[in-house]
Amino acid sequence: MKQANAILLLSCPDQRGIVASVSNFIFQHNGNIVHAAQHTTQTSKIFFMRIEWELDGFDIPREEIGKAFMPLAGRFNMTWNLHFTDYTPRVALFVSRHVYCFHDLILRQTMGDIHCEIPVVISNHRDLKPLAEHFGLNYRYYPINPENKGEQEAEEIAELKRHKVDLIVLARYMQVLTGDFVNLYRNRIINIHHSFLPAFAGGKPYEQAYDRGVKIIGATSHYVTESLDDGPIIVQDVIKISHRDSVEDMKMKGKDLERVVLAKAVKFHLEHRVIVHGSKTIVFE
Amino acid sequence: MKQANAILLLSCPDQRGIVASVSNFIFQHNGNIVHAAQHTTQTSKIFFMRIEWELDGFDIPREEIGKAFMPLAGRFNMTWNLHFTDYTPRVALFVSRHVYCFHDLILRQTMGDIHCEIPVVISNHRDLKPLAEHFGLNYRYYPINPENKGEQEAEEIAELKRHKVDLIVLARYMQVLTGDFVNLYRNRIINIHHSFLPAFAGGKPYEQAYDRGVKIIGATSHYVTESLDDGPIIVQDVIKISHRDSVEDMKMKGKDLERVVLAKAVKFHLEHRVIVHGSKTIVFE
Amino acid sequence: MKQANAILLLSCPDQRGIVASVSNFIFQHNGNIVHAAQHTTQTSKIFFMRIEWELDGFDIPREEIGKAFMPLAGRFNMTWNLHFTDYTPRVALFVSRHVYCFHDLILRQTMGDIHCEIPVVISNHRDLKPLAEHFGLNYRYYPINPENKGEQEAEEIAELKRHKVDLIVLARYMQVLTGDFVNLYRNRIINIHHSFLPAFAGGKPYEQAYDRGVKIIGATSHYVTESLDDGPIIVQDVIKISHRDSVEDMKMKGKDLERVVLAKAVKFHLEHRVIVHGSKTIVFE
Amino acid sequence: MKQANAILLLSCPDQRGIVASVSNFIFQHNGNIVHAAQHTTQTSKIFFMRIEWELDGFDIPREEIGKAFMPLAGRFNMTWNLHFTDYTPRVALFVSRHVYCFHDLILRQTMGDIHCEIPVVISNHRDLKPLAEHFGLNYRYYPINPENKGEQEAEEIAELKRHKVDLIVLARYMQVLTGDFVNLYRNRIINIHHSFLPAFAGGKPYEQAYDRGVKIIGATSHYVTESLDDGPIIVQDVIKISHRDSVEDMKMKGKDLERVVLAKAVKFHLEHRVIVHGSKTIVFE
Predict the structure, then answer these.
(1) Superfamily of A5-84 according to CATH
(2) Which residues of chain B are under the pLDDT cut of 50?
(3) Quick one: which of C8, C4, C1, C150 has its CA closest to C72?
(4) Taking the domains of chain C in order of start, what are their residue ranges?
(5) A26 has pLDDT over 70
(6) Which residue numbers in chain D have pLDDT < 70?
(7) Do C280 and D243 make contact, defined as CB atoms within 8 angstroms?
(8) For domain D90-283, which architecture applies?
(9) Which ipTM score applies to this complex?
(10) Residue of D16, D34, D239, D283 to mutate when probing chain A, most A C-beta within 10 A
(11) Could you give the 3-state DSSP secondary structure of residue D164?
(12) First-to-last CA distance in chain C?
C-alpha cells in the first residue's frame, strides 16, 4: 500500500539559510523529500515554499512533527501549515440550477481524480436533488431571500461544522455570501466566474463580452472575499470565439471552460499547492 | 502569371434573395467565385458578406463593375465596397521606441507574408531611424508635445495624403491621436494594446496584471476610435503566466503575443476580411 | 416555436455558377438562407458547400425538395444529401470500462448541448450498466472474444438496425470493429484516439509519448475506417505537459482533452457540418 | 550593478539528503539561494536539480567553487556542471535561405531578450549575408555538396573552435550534420523542426500534414543527434488549422510557431535550464 507523505506549506521574509534549514530538518529525521518548490517575490522579498516528504522512515510521529518544527519556524518567523496525504479532505458543494460544474466535480471525485469526500451538497434550489441522490450525496435545500438570508446562512454554517467541512466549492452557486460567512472560511471558499477577470465581473459576463465584441472568452476560479469577483485568482483559461458566436453559443462553449478551470483550482487546493499572499496566489503546479 | 480577383464586402438589412442576387450578378457576367462567406447578426438581422471572384473571364471591365453593381446594391440598401487583389495597399507605420512590432511588420512585408507597400514611417522619436533606413524606408520624425500636437498632426496628415496612405498601423506608437485625426482615417487605423481588452486599458497593463495576480496576459489589436483602447476589436490572443513572472517577464513574453496579434489584424485588414459594425467587427478569416 | 431548417451538403467538380444556381433554387422557392459556407480544394478543384435555409415560407413540401433539386444536382454532377433540423438523430454509444467520455456525452445530451436520442448503449463489459440505467438508457452487453466476434457483431448490427441508428460513437470502446461492420456504417462511426494522430497510433499512446519525451499530448476524433487510427480526422486538440508528468498524469490530463474533442466531433457531425473527402474532412464550423 | 549568480545543474541516483547537503553547502559558505528546482524520475529514481545563488557574499572564490563542491558531488555520485550568469555564452547560427528564424534570433539578441554573443554565422548559401552584415555579424559561406562535405565541416569546426563557440543553433539550416560533427557538440546543437515530432519527421512535414488532413500543425526544437529529427525535445507548440489551409498557408502560419519555439529553446539552454537525460529533457522553466 502507498505510504502517506507530509506536506509543509510555509512563507516568511526571505533570508539566507531557509532551504538549508528546512531540508536539514527533514533529512536529520530521516525523511525522503519527494517534491520541493520555492518562490521569492521580487519586490517584497517574501519567501514561499512547498515541500513534501515520505512519512515512511521519518523518525518523528506525525502528531509531533508540528511541535518539532516550531523552533525552526520561529527562528525564521514563518507562517506555515502541515498536511498529510492520507487525510481525505471534506468538501461541501454549493449549487443552484446549473448542473455542469456540479456533475463534473462529482464525476472526477468518483473516478478518483480529485481526492476528497463530499459530506454535503447545499443549494437554494431543489433542481439538482435527484442527481445528487443518485450519487448517494446528502442534499440540503436552503432557499434564500432577502429576509431569511442571515438565518439560512446560520443553518448552513451549522451544517458545515457538523460535517467538519474543510473546503467550500461554489459550483455556479448564484447567491452572494455575507462577509461573516466568508470570514469563517477565509481562503477556503472557491468560486468559478465565467469571464477572464478582471474583465466582466458581475452577473452577465457573456452578455457583456458579446456587446464588447471580444474575440476570446474566459473563466476564472478564485477564492471568495467580501468584494464580489475580486478574490485571489487560482486558475484562468480562455477560448477563442468569433462574430458568429451568440450569447447562447458563448454560454455553451463556456461550460467546458468553467468546469475545467474550477476542477483544476479545487485539485490544486486539495493537493495543498496554493498559498494565498495578499490579493494573489502562489500556485506550485 | 496569377490573375487578379475582385473582392466585394457588403452589408444590408437581411432579407430573402441577397445571396442569390449577388452570386447571379457574378455568374451572369461569367465570373468564377473563389471564396464566399456570410453572416447575419442574430438580433438586429443585419446581413454581411465577403465574396471574391476571378476577374479573368469576367465580362465587365474592372472600372465599370461598381456602376454595374449599383442597381442591385440600391435594391437591397447595401453598404459596400469593392477591391482588387492586384492593388498594393499603402501602409504608414507609426512607431515610438519599441522595435519589436515595427521590425516584425517589416520582416513580414519583406518576406511577402503581408502584401503592401510602406511609403512612410512616422515617429515621435529618432531611435528607429537607422533600422528603417537599412530597409530603405522613408522615416519622418515629428516630435510631439502638448503645444505642437495639432500642428504636427497636420504635417503628418499632409505626409499621409502625399503618400496616398490606405492604412495606418500604430506599431507601439505611444501618442494618442486627436479625434480629428481619427475621423479622417476612421476604421483605417489599427493599434496594438498589450492586454486582453477590456481588462487593463491605459498605459500600464502589465503592471496592473501583476498587481491583480492574473494567470493569463493578452494582447488586442483594434481600430482606433476617439475613446482610448475602446475601438472595435480585430484580433486577441493570450498566454499563460504564473506567480513567478515579474512585470519584466510579462513584458518579454508579451512581445511575442503583441507582434503576432498586430500582424494578424493588419493582414486581415489588407485582405479585406474585416467589416466594422458599430463597436464590433466581423472577421471573415 | 422555432421552425425547422433544411440543410444541404453537397460536393461536385468546381465550375462557374454553382453558388448562383443553388442560391437561386432556394430563393425562387421563397427560402431564406440562414447560413452558407463553401470551400474549393486548391489542387483537385472540388467544390464543397453547406447551405441552410428556413422551411417556413419555402414553397416546396419537405418530402419533395430532394426530387425538385435533382435536375440541378445532375447538371453539376453533385454528390449531396439533405437534412432537416427538426429530425432528432439516433446515436448508439459503444463503451468499455472508461466512464469519462460516456458520462460526458450523456450529460451534454441531457443538457441539450448535443441534439440527439440515445436509443442504445452497447458494451463488451458490464461496468457502466448502472450508470446507463440511472439515465434511463438501454444498455446491451455483448462480450467479445476471438471466437464469437463475428456472431456478436451480427447481433450488434441487428440491434443498431432495430433502433434505426444514424451514428455510432466509440466512447473509448476498446474493441476493433471488423471491416464488414465499418462498411455498413461508413463515415457514421466516430472514434476518439488519445494522441495527436498520426503520432502514437495504437493502444499505448501515453506510454509512447512518455518514452519519446514530447512536451505536448493530444487527442483526435476521427471517422473509423478499416485501418486502425487512420480514418478522416474531424477534431484535434492538445495540451502542454512537462518532464514532471508521469504516464498516469498524462492519462488524467488527457481525459479532459478526449472528452471535449469527442463531443465536438459528435456535435459537428450531428449538425451536418462535416463532409468526408477521401482521407480528409471539410468541417464547416 | 547587478551581481552575478552561480547556477549548478546536477543529477544523481535519488537518495535521502541530497537537497539538504547541497543547500547546506551553499548556506555554510554564506550563499543566498534565489532559485531552486528539482525533479525525480518516477521509475528510474534519478534526481535532477537546478540551484542558483548569489555570488555576492559567497565566501568561496568562483574559480574554487567546483573544487570545493567535488567531495559532496562524489559522495552522491553526481554528474554536474557549474555556470556563472555574468559569462556571455557564444552562439554560432547556422542558416540556409529561410530568413525568419535567423532574423528573429538576431532581433531578440539585439533587444537583450536572449543573453549571448554571436561571433559567427555559418551558411551553405550566400542569401542572408547582407542582412547578417547589416547587423555587424561575421558571415561565413561554406557551400556543401556530397564531395566536399567532410572537408567543409572540418573548416566549420575550425571556425567554431576559433570563436570558442558554446552553442550551435540550426536556424532552418538545410544540411544534415555528420555524426562526427554532432559528437563534438553533443547536447550543444539545437535544431528547429517544422512539425510536432514524432509526427512528420523528414523534409516535407507540411506536405505530409496536408495529405493526412490533420487539424493542428506544430513545431519542435530539439538537440541534434545522429538520428534525423530524433533528438531530445526541448520545446513544442502547435496551432490549429482547417481544411481551408493550403500547404502554403501552413508554411506561413508555421513561421510564427517555428521562430517562437526555437527562441524559447535557445533561451532555456542559455539560462542553463535544460538537462538532457537519455532521449529526453528536464526543462526547469
Answers:
(1) ACT domain (3.30.70.260)
(2) 1
(3) C8
(4) 5-84, 90-283
(5) yes
(6) 1-2
(7) yes
(8) 3-Layer(aba) Sandwich (3.40)
(9) 0.93
(10) D16
(11) coil
(12) 25
